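User: I'm writing a short methods note and want a consistent example. For ABC transporter ATP-binding protein, I'll paste the sequence; you return only the structure tokens, no commentary, since I'll be parsing the reply automatically.
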Amino acid sequence: MNDVIVDLQQVSKYYRNVQALHPLTMSVNAGEALGLFGHNGAGKSTLMKLILGVLASTSGEVKALGHCPRSNGAHEYRRQFGYLPENVSFYDQLTGREVLYYFAKLKGHTKVHAESLLEEVNLAPAANRPVKTYSKGMRQRLGLAQAFLGSPKLLILDEPTVGLDPVATSEFYHMVDRLKTEGCAVILCSHVLPGIEGHIDRAMILSKGRKLALGSLDELRAEAALPTEIMVSGMAEAEIKTLLNGQLTASTWLPQDAGRERFTITSDHKLAVMKRLLAQDQIQDLQLKQPSLEDLYHFYLSSTHSRSADTVSGGATHE
Ligand SMILES: Nc1ncnc2c1ncn2[C@@H]1O[C@H](COP(=O)(O)OP(=O)(O)OP(=O)(O)O)[C@@H](O)[C@H]1O
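Assistant:
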């Protein structure tokens, strides 16, 4: 599936004299999840609101599901959007069930569908309680249920896992993965990076309204050329150094961990080093730790990188 669901061409946004978004070009395809990351004030919410049609761009063209989200009649296909705002709030006096029925009616969906979502987010037992009695995590789950209404074609989630316990978090990702397989395009904005890696296809990092990076994690790893950590059991440091003589350029030795030797290598040496080590009979265990999303985030947002990117019009992106 390669249908473009979100398409932005040179989109910028000013709030009076504040440039929240510098000209940005990006797209999200059906069945794809894009992780959207950046420090506070980077422009993430602005971008999401532009795609939803809540805000008008200052320049450039925004298309969602093939239409400008602010055009006449946009409300018809906006029914196919699911959105979870950062600070979800509801009519506190209503019960969870009443809230979800209300949103279901607004979007033209049945009560039966709303009931199944209450089950899916594990709110059915509390569905008759007023929302004001809900915990933070329960409110968040209700917010997710309203975002998931009607199997959306575009799902935009701002900090979806805030307040969720580990089980609810993994159930949430399960639902996102399922919607993706049904062709839904997902934009997932989060400050919580661990756990998200396995559920996004690409990541975009924004800083001060500029796109610093956009690509799959493998692409960003290759571009950032961050070192890979190798952990070896069964060989001593000196033996490894002798064996890998010439392949340990720019390697760093790290303190032993539970009897394992640890060192880093550059990604271009990764395969050769692994092959060499695996051919040794005395090797008992060999593990490889690739740069995580967090490592990449820190790399791209490191002052040197973001300062240099600030000088590049539209951000140093490699689409
Ligand atoms: N209504 C507004 N009026 C003026 N400036 C605004 C407005 N909304 C946002 N901004 C500014 O635009 C920039 C981007 O803000 P935005 O809310 O998009 O960032 P964000 O990445 O979502 O931040 P956070 O992670 O804190 O939610 C910031 O400098 C912010 O101060």
